[in-house]
């Protein structure tokens, strides 16, 4: 059985907590709103965001659902390395990626039309 380093555990909890806070702020959601959405107290969510308490996978999944994100968004490259993480994305980056994902189902002409609308702010 592996021995766990309490300092590493604490550091991991803090990294994930900071990421939860950042993603929640990018979605312009209060701590109370997110806590209510996932069914915990805002005090407990604060303890997760500050790294004081370890978060369960189940709770992280519920947060991802409420914030309309994928689990990978909680593990940015700068904190977890290229094999695990994704680049840090702010709200605008996430919005752009969501639009780009829609391009996969469009024809060439539709893609150009959608892209032009996005560039001029109509999309």
Salient structural properties:
123 residues; mainly alpha; 434 Repressor (Amino-terminal Domain); 2 domains; 0% strand
Low-confidence stretches: none
Order of helices and strands: HHHHHHH
CATH class of the largest domain: Mainly Alpha
Helix content bin: 55-70%
**Proportion in β-strands:** under 5%
CATH topology of the largest domain: 434 Repressor (Amino-terminal Domain)
Structure overview:
By secondary structure, the chain is an all-alpha fold. The chain folds into 2 domains: 83 residues, lambda repressor-like DNA-binding domains (434 Repressor (Amino-terminal Domain), Orthogonal Bundle); 34 residues, no CATH class. It is 63% helix and 0% strand. α2 crosses α3. The radius of gyration is 18 Å and the shape is elongated.
Quick summary:
This protein is mainly α and 123 residues long. It has helices spanning 6-26, 31-38, 42-49, 57-67, 77-80, 91-103, 108-120.
């Amino acid at each position: 059985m592996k021995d766990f380093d309490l300092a590493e555990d604490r550091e991991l909890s803090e990294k994930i907590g900071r990421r939860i806070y950042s993603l929640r702020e990018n979605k312009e959601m209060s701590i109370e709103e997110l806590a209510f959405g996932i069914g915990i107290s805002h005090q407990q969510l604060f303890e997760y965001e500050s790294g004081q308490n370890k978060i369960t996978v189940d709770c992280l999944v519920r947060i991802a659902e409420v914030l309309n994100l994928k689990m990978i968004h909680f593990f940015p490259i700068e904190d977890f390395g290229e094999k695990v993480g994704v680049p840090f994305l702010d709200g605008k980056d996430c919005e752009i990626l969501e639009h780009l994902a829609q391009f996969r189902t469009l024809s060439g002409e539709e893609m150009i039309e959608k892209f032009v609308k996005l560039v001029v702010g109509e999309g």
